[in-house]
Amino acid sequence: MLRRFVQGNSLTLPLRWQRWLDVYIFLNVFGFFAWQSWKVVTESRLDFIEGLFIVHNVILCLCFALRRPARAIGASLSHQAVAVCAFYSGMLFVGAEPTADPLLSAFSWWTLLIGMLIGIFSLLQLGKSFGVLIAVRELRTTGLYGWIRHPMYLSDIVMRLGYFLSHPTLFVGILFVASSACYVVRAILEERFWMEQEPAYVDYMQRVRHRFIPGIF
Question: What are the beta bridge partners of residue 73?
Fold first, then answer.
């Protein structure tokens, strides 16, 4: 059924399909974050970092609810699987016992703070261009996107590192490495798709040469 919407490596979905997908993802993500926020409040764990995380998640949900339709969506299922795993793996970073080490807890606090601030500013800049799947919407090239090409993905990696520092278990460590790898692979796949669909992205890559860390990578 979807074959008639496939052109080369891209998929063009009707507007109503995209709206239904947006509604589904919004309800999915909003429900999870609302449940987590309710647990934080009822278990008396609400502090500055948890409150900032709630603000981050509210902005994220609003981006889902208001985002503009994609001009083109990657047709490769394997590439989209990487993108979905990168995003939704964040929901697995719950339930582990926190460390009693005050030094690790302090490092975790600052790491989470940095990650969430990068994430909030990235979301505000992305706005209606936010997406989970590999897709082309409006290209952002200013602000944090004038320093690195994927500040949103960097923020997720940094936040998950912060969680790992405060919950240093083998499972969380493996999950952190796997989810970070998914984001790196996703960034590479997404850039290839953008270069195919949007000539301006090639110019952007020449101006902003690094994906995650200025001057390094």
Answer: 11, 135
